Amino acid sequence: MIERDLIDRLSEHRTLGGAPRSELEWLAAHGTMRRLNTGEVLSVKGVPVEALYIILSGRLALFVDRGAGLNKIMEWRGGDVAGLLPYSRLTTPPGYSSALEPVEILAIPRAYLRAMAQECFDVTSILVHTMIDRARLFTSTELQNEKLISLGKLSAGLAHELNNPASAIERCGGILKGRIEDSEKATRELVASRLSEAQIAAIEAVRAACLANHSHGVRSPLEESDHEEAMFQWLARHGLDTAHAGMLAETEVTFEALESLAAVLERPDLNAVVRWLAAGCAVRSLTAKIQDSSARISSLVNAVKGFTHMDQANVAEPVDLGPGLSDTAAVLSSKAHEKSVVVTVELEADLPRVRGFAAELNQVWGNLIDNALDAVAHGGRVDIFATRENQRVVVRILDDGPGISDEIRHQIFDPFFTTKPQGQGVGLGLDIVRRLVNHNDGAIEFESRPGWTEFRVRLPIASDPHARSL
Q1: Backbone torsions φ then ψ of 443, nearest 5 degrees
Q2: Which DSSP string do the residues of 381-416 spell out, in sequence order?
Q3: Contacts by 44-48 with C-beta closer than 8 Å and gap 24+?
Q4: Residue 72, SS3 per DSSP
């Protein structure tokens, strides 16, 4: 293509076509034509971007790997500009760019951008506005994508946490049906027995002990097996049905209580009473487990509801940080359990409220605690404190991980900087945290050394008359 034809094409360019022809001539004189076939790569993650790319025809897209495959997060067509823009701090792209169809590009090398800013005022102005629009769109898109990634992690952890009590309810429900049938059959046998008042009193005393709270704690599988074997031997010695040894072993009935029944009841009646006690106590034990599991599910749902504030408008208001910190720790408990990490939340007594956006603050806590859990080793520790300092509330999140090296401390809040393996993070978590803290009129800082890292978030007290109205 001769230079005159290139200038004519630039004059028809959707983004730059309105610039003076003299500036378009400068671009044509200093640029290099590049052609990419479908699938060819223009830029690679981690490799510095070396030019401004003026797209004359075709389609080009930016892809980022989020762990579940590549995602297209931005697309450019003929009439757009991409790559390095004037005054941009972009050095390396967050992913790689490739052609979706044959592409023609005029590339202006990085070395000419300073001269372009001096020689091409209108082109530079257009490109600066383009950069602002691109940054706004990219930030909005990536913020939403980061929220979706966090939501995916939260959903996976929540599903795991909910599965345990839900499975317990299903398991107990299946067993309960059989135990109710056993109880009904044993009740009919007892009705046929003509028991004296003394015998009934002895039965009631044992039943009361059975209904008492668990006193032996949680037995190990070996202890459970030994206890069931001992119960089997007792039933066998007294000529009773040993089929209910396991069910009876799960109750609080002691051998002393059983001996007291054997002293006042003959074998046929004793067999019916033992069966009735075992079935009745099992029914109550199973219903208690179902109730506990249901309460666990309810508490998890309430924690997620509190974490997301999904029933409240996202407006600035006085915020009690205690529930938000506790709910965030609760929804991340599955991740902590997987690594056997101890997570503590300690709040100063009568901690004042802060003024801010509750859902945004919970996202801050979520990112910081999640990062701390990633940093610590198996069996590590994460501690969360909230205290008042003058007219601010300070939230401190500490972990005993390896710390942040001096080489990267100045980069951790930079967009797209991450130390996580590819696909496990795009490096926007702390950038988002900083933006959200600033939006809530707060400040964030950190200190770190090997074995100890502390992030501090300072927020204005709601009653502070000097606090900015958000």
Answers
A1: -140, 150
A2: EEEEEEEEETTEEEEEEEE-SS---TTTGGGTTSTT
A3: 44/93, 44/96, 45/92, 45/93, 45/94, 45/95, 45/96, 46/92, 47/92, 47/93, 48/91, 48/92
A4: strand
Write out the DSSP string of 151-215.
HHHHHHHHHHHHHHHHHHHHHHHHHHHHHHHHHHHHHHHHHHS---HHHHHHHHHHHHHHHSPP-
Q: How long, in residues, is the chain?
A: 470
Query: Do 267 and 204 lie in a common domain?
Result: yes
Cβ within 8 Å of residue 429, ≥6 positions away: 146, 367, 370, 371, 418
| Model confidence pTM above 0.70 | no
Domain count, the chain: 3
Query: Residue 315: CA atoms inside 13 Å, Cβ hemisphere, count?
Result: 4
3-state SS assignment for residue 355 = strand
Decide if 454 contacts 397 (C-beta within 8 A).
Answer: yes
Nearest to 55 by CA among 40, 41, 69, 35: 35
CA dihedral defined by 459, 465, 468, 469, rounded to 10 degrees?
Answer: 110
Do 260 and 330 sit in the same domain of this protein?
no
Where helices occur in 58-120 by DSSP H, the ranges are: 113-119
Token pair of 231, please?
């119960």
- Say if residues 176 and 287 touch (Cβ distance below 8 Å): yes
Token pair in block for residue 98: 């490739």
CA–CA gap between residue 50 and residue 33 (Å, rounded): 14
- In sequence order, the 6+-apart residues with CB closer than 8 A to the CB of 66 are 145, 149, 423, 426
Please give the structure tokens belonging to residue 425. Answer: 């993070």
Q: Is residue 469 part of a domain?
A: no
- Residue 41, beta-bridge partner list: 98
* Interval 131-150: pLDDT, tens: 877 766 665 555 555 555 55
Banded model confidence at residue 425, pLDDT cuts 50, 70, 90: very low
- The answer to whether 28 touches 10, Cβ cutoff 8 Å, is yes
How many Å separate Cα 171 from the centre of its chain?
Answer: 28
Query: Letter for the amino acid at 408?
Result: I
Query: Can you read off the two tokens belonging to residue 169?
Result: 């309810």
Of 54, 87, 119, which residue constitutes the final position of a domain? 119
Whether residue 54 lies inside any domain: the answer is: yes
Convert the pLDDT of each residue in 65-95 to its tens digit: 755 567 777 889 999 998 888 877 767 777 8
Task: For residue 55, tell me if it sits in a domain.
Answer: yes
d(CA 143, CA 134): 14
Q: State CA 141 to chain mean position distance.
A: 19
